[in-house]
Amino acid sequence: MRLTSLDVFRGITIAGMILVNMAGVADDVYPPLAHADWHGCTPTDLVFPFFLFIVGVAMTFSLSKYTQENKPNSAVYGRILRRAAILFVLGLLLNGFWNKGIWTFDLSNIRIMGVLQRISLSYLFASLAVLKLPRKGQWILAGVLLVGYWLAMMYIPVPGYGAGVLTREGNFGAYIDRLIIPKAHLYAGDGFKNLGDPEGLFSTIPAIVSVLAGYFTGDWIRKQSVQTRTSVGLALFGIGCLIIGWAWGWVFPINKKLWTSSYVVFTSGWALLLLAACYELIEVRLIKRWSKPFEIMGLNAIAIFVASVLLIKILVRTKIGTGDTAPSTYNWIYQNVFASWAGTFNGSLLFALVTVLLWWAVAVFMYRQRWFLKV
Fold first, then answer.
1. What is the dihedral of CA 329, 115, 16, 189, to 10 degrees?
2. pTM of the entire structure?
3. What are the residues facing 104 on neighbouring strands?
4. H/E segment holding residue 111
5. Cα separations (Å) of 333 from 33, 316, 354?
6. b/e for 347-372, b at 16 or more Cβ within 10 A?
7. Which residue from 43, 215, 267, 340 has the highest number of Cβ atoms inside 10 Å of its Cβ?
8. Are 106 and 100 in contact (CB under 8 A)?
9. Model confidence over 74-107: pLDDT tens digits?
10. What is the pLDDT of residues 223-233, one digit of tens each?
11. CA nearest neighbour of 342 among 20, 30, 12
């Protein structure tokens, strides 16, 4: 069984990621296209957890044949480990690309964690949970991870900071990351200054539940008939998660960079609502014409993501002209092609939209050539 609405959901998400990544390079960007500075959640903060949720839904179909009676063999675990390792290495390559030179990887301060690394680890541990634990055990594990993370972050004191300090450097997760990962290999941007990491090791623990939430959703969908009742069920679950996540946020703030438990539940709610809309339109009502461009992008999501990040790095690191004042290729295009007539905010948005169209054209070419690059 292939869920076309999931491919479309994945395509919408990769298009959104390219949009916000490209727009975010500019100094002036519309607030919905920027991450919340700390606590809170913007539309941009939904993109990454959507990816993890999608990974979980897809796992439902790839692992459905394995049960307590039909247990997976070592080759299955080998494929899971291989897939996780490839994603992690791809993330390291993206982190190291063009830090000092195009062909130079500075291993002395390369950032260890990142987006693909978090997807890798979350997928790995969620897969093991699905294959090793009965359904009730999976739900218990998800609850323990969320509640345990909340209690650790709020009540375990950090030397020099105390308990419940949810700053970039003072939170318990950053402290654990500093114990495990040398400071030179932590995130240096966005005020973290190598004292923490928005995709750190410890905060990957609740991210595993983002994948499990997708798995639970996909497993439920497989057992339902294709009708509006299923879409409504997804939407009701989504609304419930939004309410629970929002309420939890009063005592454990919704925060992407800490991947708080409230953030996991809240963003899973939005993922359920978007999936419900795609499912109703595509699977139930068979209204598919609008969705084909997103489906095409969704079929090569990882390849498009990696290539788009490499392009951004090239545009930012190369210059037009010579000398210290020469603008980067990104700034030159942004200022002369877009901002010069559309203004700064509209210019960054248009630049990002054009970039999305560029990668859609690449995805169309790959689709017509039947090139589907999978990890």
1. -50
2. 0.94
3. 101
4. none
5. 19, 11, 12
6. bbbbbbbebbeebbebbeebbeeeee
7. 267
8. yes
9. 888 999 999 999 999 999 999 988 766 555 677 7
10. 999 999 999 99
11. 30
